[in-house]
Amino acid sequence: MVKYNSITISLSYLYLIIIPLLYKYMENNNDNILNGLNGPQQRAVETTEGPLLVLAGAGSGKTAVLTRRIANIISLHRAEPREILAITFTNKAANEMRERITQLIGPKQAKEVWAYTFHGFAVQILRRECSVLNYKDHFVIYDDSDTKRLIRQCLKDLNLDEKQYSIKMVKAVISLYKNGGSVPRYQLNDIYNLYQNKLLTSNAMDFDDLLLNLRRLFVEHPDIKEKYQKYFKYIHIDEMQDTNTVQSDIAHLLAEKHHNIMVVGDDYQCVVEGQEVMTPDGPRLIEEINIGDLVYALKGGKPYAQKITNKSVSTHNSFLQIKTNKGKVIKVTKEHSMFGKIGTHDGWYTYLLYRPDFGFRVEISKNVEYLQSEEAERIWLLKWFPTYKDAQSLKNSLSLIDGMEILDMYYQKFDNPIYFNKQSFESEDNMIVNLVMGGEIGTEVSDKKISHHFKSFKGAKFFAKQMKSLFNETIVEEFSLGKDTENLKVLPASAIIHGVLIPVQYKNSVELESVSSVEEITEKVQCYDLEVENSANFCVNGIYVHNSIYAFRNADITNILTFEQKYPEATVIKLEQNYRSTGNIIKAANDLISYNLNQKHKNLFTAGTAGEKIRLANSLDQNSEARFIISEINKLVAQGYSYKDIAIFYRTNAQSNSIENVFAFSGLPYKIVGGTKFFDRQEIKLFRCYLQLTVNPNDDMALQRVINIPARGIGEGTLKKIRDYATNNNFSLWEALNDLVKRNNPILKGKMREGVNDFISLIKLFNNIPEDNLYEEVEEILNNCGLIQYFEKEDNGVNRIENMQEFLSEVVKFIKEHHDANLTDFLEWISLRADVDDLDVEANNYVTLMTIHTSKGLEFPIVFITGVEDGLLPHITEDSSESDIEEERRLMYVAITRARERLYITRSIKRLLFGQTKLTKPSRFINELPKEIIDENKEQNNSFIDNNSYKKNNSYKFDYRSKEKSFDEVEPGYSKSFIQRDKKKLLQTFVKGDIVRHKSFGDGVVHSCDGKIVAVGFSDGNIKRLALEYAPLEKIE
Fold it and tell me: CA-CA distance, 901 to 860, in Å (whole number)?
């Protein structure tokens, strides 16, 4: 008894000693986690409960805050590491998270934290739960080429013409349906259903399916949703402003139970004060209207109360005051979208017109009917004058200026003319797409016309934008706001001039009223814009205007702007101190982004020195620009910098060509991030098919690719019979092959049967290889699949074989990072990886070349931003809106804030684009940077003299009504590129849907060809317009 008591007493004393020591350890560990953080950062790390919104500027330590918060939660025993989810956008960023958490709390606990990309996280959950969606856990992930092959097969099975239903268009429409949630109709419905059935039969998902199926899993199976809601006690989402609707839904579904969701983002993205908006409660000042309030919007010619879903605010230094002939007045910025059409007037218009075969021309007219009878495709009104003399004077002064430059000067857009000749587009080669608000939601196709019905304008505009980016087709935006207000064009306010008709609300009707005067006023004012639910208009001072707030892209900035609406109790913390860049770089970034309207205000600052001024270099052309960069790099290396300290950014991949050529000539070490991917090479794709069939023999796309490589006597005719047999019996191709052999079916004869038997035996052999050693498994498949012997017969076969052997090195790399992984895990890793995941500048001493998009999350001591010209950065297309330009400004902001010590901004005065050399304009972003911190290269700037000479020596003018003119007959004033060329000189022509290869840009699909210019969509997603006379294009299919 006494002994027992003594033990009890001893243990009690031991308990009293251990617990304080444990608390002391936790306190010290917590101090380590908080060490070096500033006030807002520490507050964010210590806020562990409830919704948390962290608005973090570039270089402000948001990754450090996110990882330290995770470490803090674990250190305080708020949750086990496995109960914490952290989502980011690249595998590289996810790996960096794990490494930082490892440094804070050790590898054992860090390994258990769920740190993934959205797609990677979706795969992890779907592998566990996909059986309820009728998938097997070893499903494969189809990449872009697999998806296109499957769509082509669907079109063949449905006997649909690829010229009418281009592969790329169908792929885009399917993706839009999946992300938009609407159901396709008619032929597109048949394609969609067959496509989805074939995916399911092949036990495959495309990239859209990964996220959609995860959301579907949580929505349709509440028990599964509740399981993971309980499991993940803390959820962290990085770069919330880049999430789309599906990704945002997934995050909020998981956070429903605990509400412990932290989102980190930079809200810098993309319009008038004291004016009255028409509401059900009467007129209200626009600044007093809040999200959730009701305003009147026109639908079918009648005002209906619609909810405000978003509101933006900004400061401007000037605006336009527009008055009508009956006294209505509205004040708007030049870029704000309005409705208008040509009306009668009592003076003279100077206007710009355009025809595709001849180009632009400046003219004057007093007669409206004459304007609309012009043989032009498009007309823009530039200015109204009371006298002929003034109108003629402006015409003369503009006659030597390029048409696109004139549009820029007058804040107008190529795709927003006040007059558009639709008849010019009614031809055999054109598909007409009508986007309609209202009616039965969905899509129908008939006689080369697509009609898609949308619930909201936002959905219609988003769809149009995607179609535009994919196919480079013409988008015409017209509105009918009611009786007598049909065919109103959407125009920037700068295009609303004297005599233009705009819609005005009177007591019981909407009428078109003529503009009597427009005055530009210089005054600093607060400006506003409203997003109206399911509509595209609201009424200000009795005048209906378009709402311009939308940022039409998959990533939805409103996901971060509306976070506080979803979680009213949310804590909001702003991280504004930059730890990456010098003072001058931060000042440039702040001044630039202050021009964006739609943002939550914050101002970056740095504790560092001002540093070097920003270098601005003007070069004659892109080759001079590249040589200047090489020269500066050599100087920097001589000063002690390494090549790995330097990065070169560009807006589009096509810009890298001239830079790469000069790099290759100079001998400087470099690496392009985003070039031809190792895993996309033909031989690697074929070998991957054998690996995919090893884990999933039902993968139809993989089977079709390799069943006759090496040759097994199974031609396309036989394969079609096998496909038909599979379709008729609801089999996968693998199941069909086995059934045909089992039944001794006459479809398979002689050597063909032997070939099929050999193929079946080979795949079964691979299925039975032990899975305990991944390297040996992959090596055995490589040695036995027959591809080495197949490529030995090719001229360049040695390189292909070396690439397949190099594939084994990737296996070794993967095994080092994933010790217990199997072949399914390895194939998943390949499917989800991105180019930037392979970037390791610390391990390799080379200059890095990449797009600005790819640079997100990276940093370098020295950064060159190239091609900073209107048209490239911002990357302006004909239908670019102010919100598009704001997105581009945000990209420029991202590029600037990648630089730690020195920043170079370069541009060319003329640039070879789409087969034509054109003069460029300096990017508007350059003028938005503070001039006191810019060091402009005066020596390079002298090349402007050459530019003026170039412009004068290449100017031509003509009357386009003359159908045939020789080059010598053309008068100065217009570009030679608009002159009709002799078609006999063209070596080859193409039709829509042709598969072609370009020696620099790779493989692509022809979208249009007019005998002179061919528009090709290449595999990098970019559409290029190339001059047939010079383009090195080869038809390959």
Answer: 8
d(CA 1015, CA 992): 9
Q: Where are the beta strands (DSSP E) in 834-886?
A: 847-851, 860-865
Per-residue burial over 609-644, b = 16 or more CB atoms within 10 Å of its CB, e = otherwise: eebbbbbbbbbbbbebbbbbbbebbeebeeeebebb
| Chain centroid to CA 606 | 30
Residue (of 344, 302, 339) closest to 503 by Cα position = 339
What's at 752, amino acid-wise? M
> Using CB atoms within 10 A of its CB, is residue 464 exposed (0-12), middle (13-18) or buried (19+)?
buried
The token pair at 370 is 């004459």
Helix (H, G, I), strand (E, B) or coil at 330: strand
- From the number of C-beta atoms within 10 Å of its C-beta (0-12, 13-18, 19+), residue 23 rates as exposed
The helix-helix angle for 682-695 and 750-767 (nearest 10°) equals 70
Question: What's the DSSP call for residue 1021?
Answer: S
What local confidence, expressed as pLDDT, does residue 572 receive?
Answer: 81
Specify the 3-state DSSP secondary structure of 495: helix
Nearest-angstrom CA–CA distance, 199 and 205: 6
Q: How many CA atoms lie within 13 A of 1003 on its CB side?
A: 10
Tokens 């608000």 -> residue: 437
β-strands 510-532, 329-332 pairing: unpaired
Rounded to a whole number, what is the distance in angstroms from the first to the last CA of the chain?
94
**pTM of the predicted model as reported, rounded to 2 decimal places:** 0.49
Residue 826 per-residue DSSP state: H
**Helices 656-666 and 622-638, packing angle to 10 deg:** 50
> In residues, how long is the chain?
1037
Q: Token digits for 613?
A: 């001024």
Angle (CA) 923 928 929, round 5°: 100
Backbone angles phi, psi at 1000, to 5 degrees: -105, -40
Kindly state the percentage of the chain with pLDDT values over 90.
10
Query: CA 473 from chain center: how many Å?
Result: 18
In the structure encoding, which two tokens stand for residue 521, read together?
A: 């006023």
Q: Identify whether 697 is preceded by a cis peptide bond (ω within 30 of 0).
A: no
Half-sphere exposure of 794 (CA within 13 A, CB side): 13
Neighbours of 526 (CB within 10 A): 13
Tokens of 974: 């217009």
Place of tokens 């017109």: 353
In angstroms, the Cα distances linking 322 to 192, 271, 516, 540 are 48, 15, 8, 12
**pLDDT class for 31, splitting at 50, 70, 90?**
low
Query: Is the CB of residue 472 less than 8 Å from the CB of residue 1007?
Result: yes
Phi and psi at 592, nearest 5°, equal -60, -50
Per-residue DSSP letter, 714: -
- Count other C-beta atoms under 10 Å from residue 440's C-beta: 8
Residue 777, H or E segment: helix 774-784
pLDDT digits (tens, 9 = 90+) for 249-292: 899 999 989 989 998 875 433 346 788 999 998 899 988 888 88
User: Which range among 425-434, 593-602, 657-666 has the greatest average pLDDT?
Assistant: 657-666
Q: Please, which pLDDT band fits residue 900 given cuts at 50, 70 and 90?
A: confident
Q: What is the dihedral of CA 505, 507, 511, 516, to 10 degrees?
A: -70
C-alpha torsion sign, points 824, 825, 829, 830? negative
Left if phi > 0, otherwise alpha if psi is -120 to 50, otherwise beta: which for 454? beta
